[in-house]
Design brief:
Elements (H helix, E strand, L loop, with lengths): L15 H14 L4 H30 L2 H27 L12 E4 L1 H4 L9 E7 L7 H14 L4 E7 H10 L1 H8 L2 E5 L1 H16 L3 H18 L18 H15 L6 H4 L5 H25 L11 H7 L10 H34 L2 H10 L3 E2 L6 E4 L2 E4 L4 H4 L3 H12 L2 E2 L1 H8 L7 H4 L2 H11 L5 H11 L1 H5 L1 H6 L13 H16 L8 H6 L6 H10 L10 H16 L3 H12 L3 H8 L5 H11 L2 H16 L8 H18 L5 H18 L5 H8 L4 H6 L2 H16 L5 E7 L4 E9 L4 H11 L4 E8 L4 E9 L5 H19 L5 H9 L13 E5 L7 E8 L4 H11 L2 E11 L2 E10 L8 H15 L5 H5 L19
Parallel strand pairs: 2-3, 7-8
Antiparallel strand pairs: 1-2, 1-4, 5-6, 6-7, 9-10, 10-12, 11-12, 11-15, 13-14, 14-16, 15-16
Family: Belongs to the GlnD family.
Keywords: Hydrolase, Magnesium, Multifunctional enzyme, Nucleotidyltransferase, Repeat, Transferase
EC number: 2.7.7.59, 3.1.4.-
Length: 945
């Protein structure tokens, strides 16, 4: 918008006189050799631009100013284009003496027209033609464009007359916006001045509302496509919410509506305060600095701040780690705070704009507008009014008169279903200093806040508005500490504050009965939870201590204890909230990483929970937490694990879980299977029901047991020693691959390797052995396609890969190598390999848990090592949190005993750590090609319990 942008320190970028002198020498020396002249010119310009860019990059590290860097690069581009234009006219087309009326004009438009460029930005040019262009005009423009393209620039260009430009801009808002930012570069200045004069008189005059509506609509659609949140942890710095494009939109609107040339004029017009204008400048400078560093680093027009570049950008900008926060997390927190500032400025700007437009409506239109804008009273308050469905202030002193109104505004909006008028939010932003300790300790303010939090309408929406306006972080200072805080991992998609608000949104949806299909158990038990208030408070605060050196669950419980007292919760409610926050991760971790068929797992979990009310609340909190992590993180399979844990724990807490009941249930399950195989011959039915051990009968649903029975019978009739069966499950978002094979200690290793080779991500493995020495393993992999037929084809190919590897038709090391060839190991994230070996988590098994950076083939390598160490895997539980994997194996030695020898435990840990650190590549070479043992070979055994 600002046509006066200069490039501080630009003199060091390029010696214009020297460049022109070298070009003149090229022209005179190669006057008779046009091709050689063109090549020499191209080389000279390339060299000058490359050296200038390097100077701009070095200066960016010196002064840190993004705007200065963008202006320097724009100035550098100006000189290149000007020299190129003059060379073309003087030495290629001999048009230096052409009359003014015949000359063309080269104009910078779009972002380049603002006088700011990032290293990889497009160069947007408008070549203006006179009314009667000379014959050389088109060839000269073509010559310049080809040189610019050969230099590697992405050039957006148009060649038009003034008349064409005016006509096209009437019906095309993109062309109108481009011309709005037009800036003269070289050629005929009178031609440019005529364009601008006609544009301001014929296009801009009287069309402000139309332009503003179009630009705000474009912004809203852009935000919608980007996820409609500025808190995505890999934001688009240009197009994302709170990014540069939002600032550009304000530039365009201000220039069009107020007819200004310099942003600072907005202060004189009363649109922005001096403080807000400085905030505007700081935000723009920071975003340009990040964008320039990003382009320099990647060598291209990359606009997405992906995980792999964030640490390097943070280092370039000089961020240092802080206890609890890494350097990159501090950088990204600053980024999101700036994005929030951009949102605040947009809101303030739009409020002023709307108010001024209403005042400027002439004649009868103004009278109608005033009538339409007549505010309605809101029952129960004199401080706020309803302006056409939007709550706004009754007078400018409303917050000074009673600071509780800063909370009451949001409460009344919630009660009456009102949107927020920009005037109200602008005054809120300018009144944040009133949120002090007196207001925080005010009983009425805290009562209103609890009412907002537990609202039966849309508490997440109101909390988000409170957060965006700055009230929430000021009213709860501990919440303010996690505003805009990101966690540098691939698991969390949003900043911590956005995650917490989304968690409340999920809870409200469950509470209102809108999530019964996705979360049947949570929806079923929610009405029976007696203390809704404690649950809502716990959901809002469960991650409030993120970013601190200590465990955030423990620190969060401590913070919650103080806040609950302030909110007016009873001692019993406070203890409930404290416990929920301290234990908010336990149910998810137990469900996903432990064997839920192991009685000790359920006993230990029940000992921690102790009551059904806690169990209910913890289940709902866990669902809300996982759901709010980000799209695609929750799936029905995780829901099934949580439901299983809930039901098993419910039995124990209600006194219905015992070893006797387990045996009785197994006997009953065997009888039900016998009855379900009614169309089988009696002898076959009896034989088959004795084929399975108790864990299978207790774990696998009857419907699946019948499917497995038909599958095994079909394989036996066909004489197949090896067979696979696939099934998709859209609700659980998993695909099931069942493998029937001769038992073998390396079976899981081979299956896991085959899945890795086929690109299938395993989420769980159910391992069962039949009484006749065969393995019936069910592997659950993440669903890849939404369409069942596509997923079935993909699952069938995974099944064929498993069969090929098990039968020896394909060698596992080769297929994995093919899958991973050319794939670089990510250096973005580092997770120190960790191995935990416990004999207290199960009565029958040693539990080995590994934690490390995920990679293709990892599970296959780990299980190969466990087989090498003569360990029998009874069950495996695979859990992925973004880039981190936590795999748990329930094992015994080959005699069925726990691993109690300390030296052997240390050896297991060392071998596993070596594999996790990729220091044992020879493990791949030890993987068997197939496991169908020849006659006389003894297959390994696996636990039957």
């Amino acid at each position: 918008m600002d046509s006066k942008v200069t490039a501080p320190g630009h003199s060091g970028l390029l010696d214009i006189a020297a460049l022109k002198g070298r070009c003149e020498f090229i022209a005179s020396a190669l006057a008779d050799y046009r091709d050689q002249m063109r090549k020499a010119l191209l080389g000279e310009l390339k060299k000058a631009y490359t050296e200038g860019c390097e100077q701009a990059r070095e200066l960016l590290f010196v002064d840190g100013s993004g705007l200065a860097c963008a202006a320097r690069l724009s100035w550098l581009q100006d000189q290149i284009i000007t020299v190129l234009h003059d060379f073309a006219l003087n030495h290629i087309f001999n048009a230096a003496l052409a009359p003014e009326a015949a000359r063309i004009t080269v104009t910078a438009v779009g972002g380049y027209g603002r006088g700011t460029l990032a290293p990889g930005s497009d160069i947007d040019l408008l070549f203006l033609l006179p009314a009667k262009p000379a014959p050389w005009s088109a060839p000269a423009i073509e010559f310049m464009l080809y040189i610019l393209w050969d230099m590697g620039f992405k050039v957006g260009h148009a060649t038009r007359s003034i008349e064409d430009s005016i006509e096209l801009s009437k019906g095309d808002m993109t062309i109108r916006t481009a011309i709005l930012e037009a800036r003269y570069l070289c050629g005929s200045r009178p031609l440019f001045d005529e364009l601008w004069t006609r544009f301001t008189h014929e296009i801009m005059r009287g069309t402000g509302p139309e332009f503003i509506a179009a630009k705000l609509s474009e912004r809203d659609e852009r935000h919608r496509k980007a996820g409609d949140t500025r808190y995505l942890v890999e934001p688009n710095i240009k197009e994302g919410k709170g990014g540069l494009r939002d600032l550009h939109t304000l530039f365009w609107i201000a220039k069009y509506h107020y007819h200004i040339r310099d942003t600072e004029e907005l202060v004189k017009l009363g649109v922005l305060s001096r403080h807000e204008f400085k905030l505007f400048q700081k935000a723009e400078d920071f975003l340009w600095a990040v964008r320039c560093h990003l382009h320099f680093l990647t060598g291209k027009a990359e606009e997405r701040l992906s995980f792999d570049v964030q640490p390097e950008i943070a280092a370039s900008l000089g961020y240092q780690p802080h206890p609890g926060l890494s350097a990159v997390e501090r950088f990204m927190k600053h980024y999101f705070l700036v994005a929030k500032d951009v949102g605040d400025l947009t809101r303030i700007f739009c409020a002023t704009l709307e108010d001024q437009q209403a005042k400027e409506a002439p004649g009868i239109t103004a009278a109608i507008s005033r009538f339409a804008r007549r505010n309605r009273k809101i029952p129960g308050t004199l401080d706020f009014v309803d302006d056409r469905g939007r709550i706004t202030i009754a007078d400018p002193e409303v917050f000074k008169r009673d600071p509780v109104n800063l909370i009451r505004l949001f409460h009344i909006a919630d009660l009456n279903g009102l949107e927020f008028h920009p005037d109200a939010l602008k005054l809120v932003t300018r009144s944040l200093r009133l949120v002090n300790n007196a207001l925080r300790e005010n009983d009425e303010a805290n009562r209103l806040f609890l009412s907002i939090l537990t609202s039966p309408r849309d508490p997440a929406l109101i909390l988000r508005r409170m957060n965006e306006s700055g009230v929430l972080g000021r009213f709860i200072p501990d919440f303010g500490k996690i505003v805009a805080m990101m966690q540098f991992n691939m698991y969390h998609h949003y900043t911590v504050d956005e995650h917490l608000i989304r968690s409340v949104g999920v809870l409200a949806a469950i509470d209102q009965g809108r999530e019964a299909e996705a979360h049947p158990l949570a929806a079923q038990i929610m009405p029976g939870i007696e203390d809704r208030v404690s649950l809502y408070v716990a959901v809002l605060l469960h991650d409030i201590a993120k970013g601190r050196p200590e465990d955030h669950s423990v620190a969060g419980a401590r913070v919650a204890r103080k806040l609950c007292q302030r909110f007016g919760l009873s001692p019993k409610q406070t203890e409930t909230v404290v416990w929920l926050i301290e234990e908010h991760l336990v149910m998810s971790m137990v469900a996903q990483t432990r064997d839920l068929n192991d009685r000790k797992t359920i006993v230990d979990f029940a000992d921690k929970v102790r009551s059904m009310e806690r169990l209910k609340m913890l289940l709902v909190l866990t669902v809300c937490d996982i759901r709010a992590v980000g799209p695609g993180v929750w799936n029905g399979w995780k829901g099934q694990l949580l439901r299983t844990l809930y039901y098993e724990t419910e039995l124990l807490l209600s006194g219905g879980f015992s070893e006797v009941s387990r045996k009785e249930r197994a006997r009953f399950a065997r009888e039900k299977l016998h009855e379900a195989l009614l169309d089988w011959r009696e002898g076959d039915r009896s034989a088959y029901t004795q084929l399975h051990y108790d864990p299978y009968l207790l774990t696998v649903p009857l419907e699946d047991q019948v499917r497995h029975a038909e599958f095994i019978r079909g394989a036996d009739k066909a004489g197949q020693a090896l067979a696979t069966m696939v099934r998709t499950d859209s609700f659980h978002a998993i695909t099931e691959i069942t493998v029937l094979s001769p038992d073998h200690p390396r079976l899981l290793t081979v299956i896991a390797g085959a899945c890795a080779a086929a690109g299938a991500n395993i989420v769980d493995a159910q391992i069962f052995t039949t009484s006749d020495g065969r393995a019936l393993d069910t592997i659950l992999v993440n669903r890849e396609f939404p369409n069942d037929s596509d997923e079935m084809r993909r699952a069938a190919s995974v099944g064929r890969m498993i069969e090929d590897v098990l039968s020896g038709r394909k060698r596992l090391p080769e297929v994995i190598a093919t899958r991973t060839r050319g794939r670089k190991r990510s250096k973005t994230f580092t997770i120190p390999p960790a191995v935990t070996i416990s004999n207290t988590l199960s009565n029958k098994f040693t539990v080995i848990e590994i934690e490390c950076l995920d990679r293709p083939g990892l599970l296959s390598e780990v299980t190969a090592v466990l087989s090498d160490l003569s360990l029998d895997i009874a069950s495996a539980h695979i859990t992925t949190f973004g880039e981190k994997v936590i795999d748990t194996f329930y094992v015994t030695d080959l005699l069925g005993h726990k691993i109690t020898n300390e030296n052997r435990q240390n050896n297991i840990a060392a071998r596993l750590k070596a594999v996790m650190a990729e220091e044992a590549d020879e493990a791949r070479d030890r993987m068997p090609s197939g496991i169908l043992a020849p006659a006389g070979t003894q297959a390994g055994t696996r636990s039957k319990e």
